[in-house]
Amino acid sequence: MSYIVDRRLNGRNKSAVNRQRFLRRYREHIRKAVADAVNRRSITDMERGEEISIPTREIDEPNFQHGQGGRRQYVHPGNREFHAGDRIARPPAGGQGQGGGGGSGSASPDGQGEDTFVFSLTREEFLDFLFDDLELPNLERTELAQIEHTRQVHAGIIREGTPSRINVVRSMRSAYGRRLAMGSSLRQALKAAEQELAHLQAQAPVDLQAVAELEQQIAHLQKRLQKIPFLDTYDLRYNHFAQEPVASSQAVMFCIMDVSGSMTQNHKDIAKRFFLLLYLFLERHYERIDLVFVRHHTSAREVNEQDFFYSRETGGTIVSSALKLVNEIIDKRYPTSLWNIYCAQASDGDNWDDDSSQCASLLEEALLPKVRYFAYVEITPHEHQALWQEYEQIRAQHPERFAMQQIVDQKDIFPVFRELFKRRASL
Amino acid sequence: MSPTSYTTKKDKQPLSNTSEWTFELIEAYDQAFARLAREYGLDTYPNQIEIISSEQMMDAYAAIGMPVGYHHWSFGKHFLSVEQSYKRGQMGLAYELVINSNPCIAYLMEENTLMMQALVIAHACYGHNSFFKNNYLFQTWTDASAIIDYLMFARQYLSECEQKYGVDAVENLLDACHALQNYGVDRYKRPVPISAEEERKRQAERENYLQQQVNALWTTIPQARDKQADAQSPPRYPTEPQENLLYFIEKNAPLLEPWQREVVRIVRKIAQYFYPQRQTQVMNEGWATFWHYTLMNRLYDDGLVTEGFILEFLQSHTSVIYQPPFDSPHYSGINPYALGFAIYTDIKRICEQPTEEDRQWFPEIAGADWLETLHFAMRHFKDESFILQYLSPKVMRDLHLFSVLDDDQKSELEISAIHDEMGYREVRRLLASQYNLSLREPDIQVWNADIRGNRSLTLRHQRSQRRPLDKHTFAVLRHIHALWGFPVHLQSCEGEEVIVKYQYPHSH
């Protein structure tokens, strides 16, 4: 007696819990490996998993076992030249001569094992560790129910529509049904007439008149049958599609960077990583993200990503020009009722002295009311200048939506990012 | 390979001409095998054949053959290593996995060809299944109809514990129990079969009772010392050494909470369920391999499968029973499929075409009914005794078996016996003892629990052949300490003489 069961549609991830338990147990190892990977990897390369190695001794499950030494005998297969009593040199430890043991299957507890246990984190797990404990500030879904975005969904079959949406199968099926229904009484009559005709013709004196009448009747019936249309407008069926509103949440992220002469490529790389982390982070919370790159020296310009990071400029620095441009772009293209707005600004702290106060007032009056979060990183090992001091006052007044940090080295990016976005108890 | 003639029989339609499987074809093959199995007297549990994907196979594989497992990181670790080597193509997935339960659950992977599905059905659903049902060890130690329920109970109980006492507390406890899971059986006592129903019913009752017992045991300490007893050496507790460490801890550990004792018991019971499998690897795999070979060839002889089918089968059968020689880079011990298949096949040969040598070595089976002899051999032995009883000189010659003596007091290895007239008995004895669990694993027993003094626990390791313990010993003692709650000592002894002393925590 056998039962055959198809289990393929059952859950695939029976081990998911155990896998999570494992990751949980070795959290510290993995976190460290992920942090290293973030610093090491190239920027375009963040969206994949990571291979993690853990020293085997850390994850051993100990058991009582025999160690090396003592007197032991093992039986091996494949003898070719040995005779009883032969003596042979001891092979180096860890080589052959261990295996014996009755082939204990998968586990090979002794010797030979590698020194590290290697496994892969999936992309999701990698990002989870990357963003572990981080929470998006002021995460409230603007316009959640707003019907900006719709999606076409199949909404059944209808009788009216445009020719391009004819559902051929359904149309033919209903035509066939109609033909069956309309023709059935005719076909019955025809069949009866034909039988009678056959009957009449079989009789010895053929009643010619009756035969002629019947033949006429048959011809009439056949004609009527033929007149039943193969396809009628009545039969036509159309696929129906409906527009279904999709609750969308969208964000725009402004990347603002100083590209004046004092910003070296190294500065820009650091800034780039910072923007990238922010982007990855936002991507996990919003379905749609627009990126706007604004670079500035003495004047600001909206550019594409390539130009933003790699074209060279020289000259002085007027930060307010960029803030002004961002404000204009928001007013023109990103109404706050529809967009979650995030700004990230990177600079080396240089600014024309009398511009800094202007920046502060621009932020305070125009920008901060519109944005969800404004993050400023200053990439410099030097003393802070006027801009930093002005911004510090803003931070004091708006700690919930304004953050700033200093970055000196590549290694600082991740900790700083975490600091900027760390979970806030109050939220 | 037995001299079956491979000529196509034209009189019958083959069951299939394709390598793609369908449910109908699987059913057809299953029915064909069932008919043949009846003919050969294979007595089986009903089969539950489950078609699964390769990911699901990895899941099943990682759960070490428990269809319903409790959660623990070590299974996650196992899963990750299986996944890693599978993804890198270092390892194909095991194409069969079968569970000793009633009905007997066998997994078929959807990626397999029809031939492989048929092979797995023959191997698992009729080979392993009949072994599970009829081998004395399985009959004694496991209850196939209760295991799934028991595992469900265990999982539920453990997840309740996690909710009540926290994931970490349960995890640490399981870590400690797992370290001792090979020391959770009474080798010479018949266990009470497990039943989830009974467990659930008695569990609360037992909790109270157990705690009372433990309390009674420990109330006499520490102050009430009998002066007379003090004069002599105080009596040991337990009076006889106990080999079942987990059982001893479950019943006697002074500080464990009732729920913790229950968890110890769960690990012990599950270890008990797997105990027969660890002792019958060669017999079990050999039996299943012998029958898939026999049943598949019968299908061919009866004209039910095509020539292409049987050739595909022979190719995979050959790789299953391949035994790399000791100096091959692929060598990792004796292949239980190869050894078991060789012995069963040879038993059949001895029954049917005994030589002079066979009559001398196996007078009681030479010329006997092969089917009856084979069934007898399957039912009444475990690997150790099976090899001792049935390993024939011919098989030793075919596999070129030889034994190596490795004595750390000598500078060279010595070939102690080979497959010749002088060596047959020695090789056979040594190979058999290689499968003796009590020699394979260090002999460690509870020696003394100092119930009148500092409550420390002393274990004794009886060395055999001067073999020491390995570097994991301290880690295991740490786990025992976690269970026992007071200092743990381990004495490694040669006869009565203590050679090495381990203890945890380190006192100085």
Automatic annotation (TrEMBL), chain A:
Transmembrane segments: none annotated. Residues 78-89 have a biased composition (Basic and acidic residues). Residues 60-115 are annotated as: Disordered. It comes from the Bacteria. InterPro entries: UPF0229, vWFA_dom_sf. Pfam families: DUF444. Residues 94-105 have a biased composition (Gly residues). Belongs to the UPF0229 family. This is UPF0229 protein SAMN05421831_104158.
Automatic annotation (TrEMBL), chain B:
InterPro entries: Spore_V_R, SpoVR-like_C, SpoVR_N, Ycgb-like. Pfam families: SpoVR, SpoVR_C. NCBIfam families: PRK11767.1 (NF008737). Residues 20-438 form the SpoVR protein-like N-terminal domain. Residues 442-494 form the SpoVR-like C-terminal domain. This is Stage V sporulation protein SpoVR/YcgB, involved in spore cortex formation.
